[in-house]
Amino acid sequence: MTQSKQPSSRTFETRIQIAAPRDAVWNAIASDTELRRWFAPEVKIDTEVGGEIVWAWRDHHRWAQRIEILEPGSRLRTRYDSAVDDDAGGKRPLFVDFMLEGEGGITTLRLVQSGFGPEAEFDSEYDGISRGWPVELRSLRLYLEQHLGKDRQLAWSTRDLDMDPDKAWRILTSGDGFACGTEVESLAEGAPFHIKTADGDGFSGRILACHRRGFSGDAQSHGGAFLRVCVEEWGGLAHAWLWLGAYDHPAEKLAALQKRWDAMLDRLFVANGEAAAKSGV
After folding, report:
1. What is the mean pLDDT of residues 44-60?
2. Rg of the chain over all Cα atoms, to the nearest angstrom
3. What number is the average pLDDT over the span 65-75?
4. What is each CA distance from 225 to 66, 123, 243, 276, in whole angstroms?
């Protein structure tokens, strides 16, 4: 008698040490107000087992989950459906675990996302979260260590592009665009950066994280703002992304910066007929 073999699973795990007490880190992952200060612009949490969590980036992306484990100060686990069928009329589940350790003023946050099967259908999401979480957790650390308790303001522009993502990255980082060069994706964490865009905007600070077609940094030129420049790929499209999350920067200057970014992406992509959909926000 043979037994059917269950598909093996893939797990992504990362951790980060933060110079902040555990209760501050817990609030930052379990409070809607705190999450909006470093993560998604729109957050809704029903903080109880079985309650819903929604992280949303306006009309660009919505991530809804259910709380499975809630141990205040120690562990938060959520569950959501993947896009992969479970052969029983439903979808294969995926899980996100936030686990905290440490005492005093130093906390280690361990993040584990699990449930990914070996199938190719999981590859895009697995690759996306493998790049995304290290970036987002550095945004969390920047907030907790430099801006705790402060609201965040955003300059954010993005375009959905029907083109090769590597080509989009070359265009975005060219001298006619953000002018940082594609090699910026190879810088080490902590390396200094000094960038002057085609529109004359200057950004300087230290690299926080780099990955293929993207980087993020602590923009000290803008009061320790979180800067992210990248081209992601999902849903069959490339997504050019310019993001500055600022805490001590005049709102009118951020609004003006976003207008220049919108015009830059239109100039680089939309005007040339490259964009599949215009979605600047």
Report:
1. 94
2. 19
3. 98
4. 31, 32, 10, 30
Q: Is residue 139 part of a domain?
A: yes
Residue 115: per-residue pLDDT: 95
Domain termination residue (choose one: 125, 146, 167): 146
Q: Are residues 232 and 170 located together in one domain of the fold?
A: yes
In 3D space, the residue among 257, 134, 262 whose CA is nearest the CA of residue 207 turns out to be 134
Q: Report the C-alpha gap between 162 and 206 in whole angstroms.
A: 32
Average pLDDT, the chain: 93
Quick one: pLDDT band at residue 219, thresholds 50, 70, 90?
very high
- Is residue 53 within 8 A of residue 78, CB to CB? The reply is yes
E strands in the chain: 10-18, 42-45, 52-57, 61-71, 75-85, 91-101, 107-116, 153-161, 192-196, 202-211, 214-219, 225-234, 237-246, 275-278
Q: Give the mean pLDDT of 241-269.
A: 96
In this model, does residue 234 exceed pLDDT 90?
no
> Structure tokens of 67?
């709380």
Question: Which residue segment(s) compose the domain that 258 sits in?
Answer: 153-278
